[in-house]
Amino acid sequence: MQRIMGTETEFGILSRDGDRSDPVANSLQLIAHYPSLLAPQGIWDYENENPLLDARGFQVEGERERPGPAYNRQLNKLLANGGRLYVDGAHPEYSTPECHHPRELVAYERAGECVAAACLRAMNEQYGTDAFYLYKNNSDGKGNSYGYHENYLLARSVPFDMIVQGLLPFFVTRQIFAGAGKVGAENATDPVAYQIAQRSDFFECLVDLNTMVNRPIINTRDEPHADPSRFRRLHVIVGDANMSEWSTYLKVGTAAIVIQMLEAGADLPALVLNNPIEAIKAISRDWQFEYDIQLEGGKNISAIDLQRQYLHAAHQFFACHELTTTTKDLLVHWERVLDQLEQDPMQLADELDWVAKRAMMLSYMGRKGCGWDDPRIKLLDLQYHDIRPDKGVYHALERGNRIKRLLNDADIQTAEYHPPSESRAYFRGMCLKKFPQAVYGMSWTSVLFDVGKNAIKRIPLMNPSRGTQALTQDLFEGVETVDQLLERLES
Question: Domain boundaries in the chain?
Answer without folding.
Answer: 1-136+407-491
